[in-house]
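$ fold --in a.seq
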Amino acid sequence: MYFTDRGLEELERRRGEEEVSFSWLSEQLRTFVDLNPEYEDPIERLATWLARLDDEDDE
């Protein structure tokens, strides 16, 4: 189990039934990076990965 699994499990447990838009998620990630600029690179990588999930060229 990765360390991040605990946070993901908590997220699923607390908010797993909610539906959110990608606009809402993007705003929350921007706020997170504003408060924690040292995480800018991993958040950028996550956002790019999510944005390109359906791209056949990246497979």
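$ fold --in b.seq
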Amino acid sequence: MNDTPAPPTDRTRPAERPLDLVGIGIGPANLSLAALADGLNRPRPGVACGAGGEAEGVEVAFYEQRPRFSWHAGLLIDGATLQVPFLADLVSLVDPASPWSFLNYLRSCERLFPFYFAERLHIHRAEYDAYCRWVSEHLPDLHFGHQVDAVRWNPERDLFEVDFTQVGADGEVEALGRTHARNVVLGVGTEPYVPDPLRPLVDAPAAPVFHSADYLDHRERILAADHVTVIGSGQSGAEVFLDLLRARPAGRERIHWLARTEAFAPMEYSKLGLEHFTPDYVRYFHALPQETRDGLVPRQWQLHKGIDADTIAAIHEELYRRSLHGGWPDAVLTPGVQVRTAGRVATTRVELHLEHVQQGARSRLTTDAVVLATGYRERPVGRMLAGLDPYVRHDSANRPRIDEEHRLVLDPSVTGSVYVQNAETHTHGVGAPDLGLAAWRSASILNSLTGREPYPLPRRTSFTTFGLERREAPKIPGQGKRLTPLVRGW
């Protein structure tokens, strides 16, 4: 039995008629939006309290320069799990009956009963990647191998022009194209970040120095190194260190794990702490003054940059097990250390110049391989959006202003909207990149886009009241001053 939903039967559109929405990038955020948009193009059995709903229809297209969907392929380490429950899939927290849910994926590949008996709340990261890939391979309106080159506003037609290049599997250009759309959504995600002192090492191939995003691609070479150093105290650094520790012989581990943070600290995972990843907190955070928001985000690092407690426990258990017969494993874990400079020794080794912040002490560490678990930064889109520069409004730090409905604040002459996904931490808080808010944000965007409420959203989502005045969701998200309802019959 195949429970993969069939695509809607009527996908035809006159070439001269613009799309309602063009998505740029197909990561989990825009894949969630595409899945929920597809739900609007299907008859819906019921939306709220037993009320029926007809298909309300939006015409969309999503473009991705990669040839296929891939989610952090270099970190799909055996046994690594998500830090959010499986209900934080692409759709379930706003539309649990969607055919694109994780549970329906399991049903389609006849794995629902094994999952049921596994009693697993946090699924394997590789399983989440396979689920998203399943959605991407069956969902309509996704165009891989399409690189978006430019986005412009055409004031004469009141439309966005999206130029793209279609690229073949061999990387050669196959065609150039242009799409017109009433609205655009950016979901280009993040890219690996390498601190300035370490950048020269990555560019020189003699000694293996890789970002953790590429860890699995180079794992065998890293394991073959006599001494390995992992830099970074987040979840990725912990998972890489644990994987290396398990793979190297007892007593001859020869691993250093360095971190700038004052401790290898656990992620905040208390039930009330998790309420910082609710729509209630997003609304509270967005209403704060810019200066207050900018001060809050760095202080909240442990909400999203700490280490899962189970991973910390696994690391300690592995270290403890290696000490059972006397002696200590040859593994050094040192927090509170920053890399001042770095260079190469005899072309095949790396020398790290370290400083311990609390002690004020400095030292050198020579190593044969380095894994940089130094995080990610928002992918730059300035060149692609250069045509919109005259219309985009910025804050005092020269960042784009983003309204509560995840739209760039544009000049009033622009009647369309540019939505952003996973690029609004400075306006929406630490939950912006969190998978648990992806479906809610996608539904909010579609509600705003349509001017209706095809996806009813809860008015309250947390027991915590953030601030002295509770700000509830509007009756119909999307009835802001810049809303342009969809116009049919172009």
